[in-house]
Amino acid sequence: MVKILSDSTCDLPQELLDQYRVEVLPLHVLLGEEDHRDGVDITPDEIFQWSDANKTTPKTAAPTIEDAVECMRPLLADGSEILCFAISETMSASLNVMRLASQELEAEDKVFPFDSQNLSTGIGLLVIEAACMAQEGMEIQEIITRLEELRPLVHSSFVVDTLTYLHRGGRCSGMAALAGGMLKLHPKIVVTDGKMDVSKKYRGSLSKVVKAYVCDLEGGLRKAKKERVFITHSGCTPEIVKEVKDYLRSLSLFEEIIETRAGSVISSHCGPGTLGVLFLERA
């Protein structure tokens, strides 16, 4: 049997984790000296409150080897193999922690780390595909081969409401953050080969920006796999989310439009008001 394990940055809601039988290994969020587990004992809204009060961004950290060992041990108990997902290796040591944990458990032949080269529900899309293949009884090497074909077809992008959090986390200069705030600039950030790059800058209110961003995606959306599309955000207003949903419904392309809330790790770096539309292109 193949079991699926992902770190918490996949940002899948509990109902999908249950539906696809996915186990989650939480990353850590550090609010000063306080250590919290992503998705377990801290929420994005609590992070935003702390960050604004302290004028800084929380630090985030990969799971410990002990965390991973404790998570993997019961999954291996019945002789199953584990397919492991994590945020891109260029962004975190999370996947390497899983490798080290498999060595600690002397289970390298049973644990198969897979670099998503992505983040948030960009990982989640691959996790669900893998879970479906596992439930169909596919062998783990077959699943990995298929995932390697799917990985470059993941479309992950998002627009941010404020550059403040990216600046606090060292991902945007102070001058750029100041200029962006004054000019009401909202960058579109695209994940390519495991790295984040700014592909476009929108100007105006967040509602106007999100509408323009989603409309710009239409060409790609028409080439997408029909099963699902994610709207993943870090606390946008219901009105903005509804507008995105209505637009996607109007295209009549997807069997399922899934709204998810970005977890604490992703939210702590992007800040409130971030929204992305994520999907898989047809092979």
Draw up the topology in text.
Layout: E1 2-7, H1 14-19, E2 22-25, E3 28-31, E4 34-37, H2 44-54, E5 59-61, H3 65-76, E6 81-86, H4 94-104, E7 111-115, H5 121-135, H6 140-150, E8 154-155, E9 157-159, H7 164-168, H8 174-183, E10 185-192, E11 195-203, H9 206-216, H10 218-221, E12 229-233, H11 238-251, E13 257-261, H12 264-270, E14 275-280
Parallel strand pairs: 1-2, 1-6, 6-7, 12-13
Antiparallel strand pairs: 3-4, 3-5, 8-14, 9-10, 9-14, 10-11, 12-14
How would you sum up this structure, described in words?
With 283 residues, the protein is of the alpha/beta class. 41% of the residues lie in helices and 25% in strands. The chain has helices spanning 14-19, 44-54, 65-76, 94-104, 121-135, 140-150, 164-168, 174-183, 206-216, 218-221, 238-251, 264-270, and strands spanning 2-7, 22-25, 28-31, 34-37, 59-61, 81-86, 111-115, 154-155, 157-159, 185-192, 195-203, 229-233, 257-261, 275-280. Strands 8, 9, 10, 11, 12, 13 and 14 form a seven-stranded mixed beta sheet that branches. Strands 2-1-6-7 form a four-stranded parallel beta sheet, sandwiched between helices. Strands 4-3-5 form a three-stranded antiparallel beta sheet, covered by helices on one side. It is globular. Mean pLDDT is 91; it is low at 170-183.
Strand content: 15-25%
- What would the average pLDDT be, to the nearest integer? 91
Helix and strand sequence: EHEEEHEHEHEHHEEHHEEHHEHEHE
Number of DSSP-assigned strands: 14
- Quaternary class: single chain
Which consecutive residue ranges, at least 5 long each, have pLDDT under 50?
Answer: 170-183
Treating each run of at least 4 consecutive H or I residues as one helix, how many helices?
12
Percent range of helical residues: 40-55%
Q: Rg, please?
A: 19 Å
| Separation of the first and last Cα atoms | 26 Å
Q: Which class best fits the helix and strand makeup?
A: alpha/beta
Largest sheet: 7 strands, mixed
